[in-house]
C-alpha cells in the first residue's frame, strides 16, 4: 500500500438513510479509513437538498450523493452554480418504482395498466421522487415516458425525502414513488405498496450514488480525496465479497443512526431476493452492487453525460451543454485511478461504456445531443 500525507485527517461524509450508503459507513466501521490515514465521520442527513447545501457551505467535506444532483449543481439547475467533483461511483442498481396497493387493486400492476388507469381517471395522479435532478426523478420520468405517460403533463411529480416515502404512500398523499432501498421493500412489507419496476429493469447496471465533493475541496485536499476513495473501495470490495458480509452490513446500517429500519427490510433485496407484493418472487442478479471487481466504481464519463441528456430532454437545461467538457471537468478519473491503485483495484482505461435501456435505446456517450433529442416524449 502506498503511504500518502493527507491534508485533512477527519472527513465528514454526509449520507441519506438508504441501503446504498453502506460502503461509506462500512469504511468507517471496519477501519479501512484508518489504513489510509484518515477518519471518516458519516453524517446522517434528512434530505438530498440538505446534503447539497452542506456540501456547498462546507459543513460536509464529501457526500454519498445522487449522480444527477452533482450535475444539477455543476450546471446551476435549482441552486447557485458551483464546480463539483465526482470522485467515484459508489454503486449500481438497487432502486425501484413503487405504486400504492390501492392502485394495484384498481388494476394498475404494470406500466401498460397504469397508463390505462390514468387515461380513464378524471383526477391527476401524483408521484414522488427524491430530488428534481436526481437519479430517482430520471428513472421515474424515463419509465413513465416509456409507457406513453408524459411525466410533466400527464402527472404531478413532487419531491419527498426517501425515508418519508412509505408514510406518504400509506397516507394516500401520493400514488407512487421512486426511491432507493429499503423503502420500496418496506412498502411491500407494510402492505401499502407494490414494486412495479426496478431501476435495473430500466437500465441494467446503471450508475447510482457517487462520492461527491466540491471542486474547491478536491483542489485543496487531493491526497485526502485519494484516501477516501481508497478506503471506500476497500469497503465496497468487502461488502460484495460474500452474502455473509452483506448480512453483517445490513445489521449494522439498520441502526437508528444510519438507516433506522428493521434489518429484514434491508437484507432481502441486497441479496437479490425480490418480492413485488403481488405474489411474484424472483432472484435478481442485477441487484444493488457496490464493487463488481471495480466495474461498479469507475466514474465513466458517459455515466455523467447521460444525466445531462435527460436534463436537456425534460427542459431542465434550456440550451445544449458541452456534454463531454462538463463530464471531463466533474468526473475525476485520474484521481480515481490513483486511489484504485492504492487499494489494488482494477481500473479500466475506458472512459465511456455502452448500455441498452428498457426501450431498446442504446447509450454509449458518442453523440449526446442527438440522443437527448431522439425521444418521442420530451419537454419540447
Give the secondary structure arrangement, pairings included.
Blueprint: E1 10-15, H1 22-29, H2 32-35, E2 39-44, H3 48-57, E3 62-66, H4 67-74, E4 84-89, E5 95-100, H5 101-105, H6 111-120, E6 125-129, H7 135-146, E7 155-159, H8 165-170, E8 176-180, H9 183-189, E9 193-198, H10 199-202, E10 209-214, H11 215-220, H12 222-240, H13 243-253, H14 263-270, E11 273-275, E12 281-283, H15 301-313, H16 323-330, H17 333-342, E13 355-356, E14 362-363, H18 368-372
Helix pairs in contact: 1-12, 4-15, 9-14, 12-17, 13-14, 15-16
Largest sheet: 5 strands, mixed
End-to-end C-alpha gap: 52 Å
Strand content: 15-25%
Strand adjacency order, main sheet: 2-1-3-10-4
Gyration radius, in Å: 20 Å
Task: Please give a quick description of this structure.
With 380 residues, this protein is α/β, with parallel strands linked by helices. Helices cover 41% and strands 17% of the residues.
Structural features, described:
With 380 residues, this protein is of the alpha/beta class. It is built from 18 helices and 14 strands. The strands form four sheets. A five-stranded mixed beta sheet has the order 2-1-3-10-4, with helices on both faces. Strand 11 (273-275) and strand 12 form a beta hairpin. Helix 1 crosses helix 12, helix 4 crosses helix 15 and helix 15 crosses helix 16 (323-330). The longest helix has 19 residues, at 222-240. The radius of gyration is 20 Å and the shape is globular. The protein starts with 9 loop residues before the first strand and ends in an 8-residue tail after the last helix. The mean pLDDT is 97.
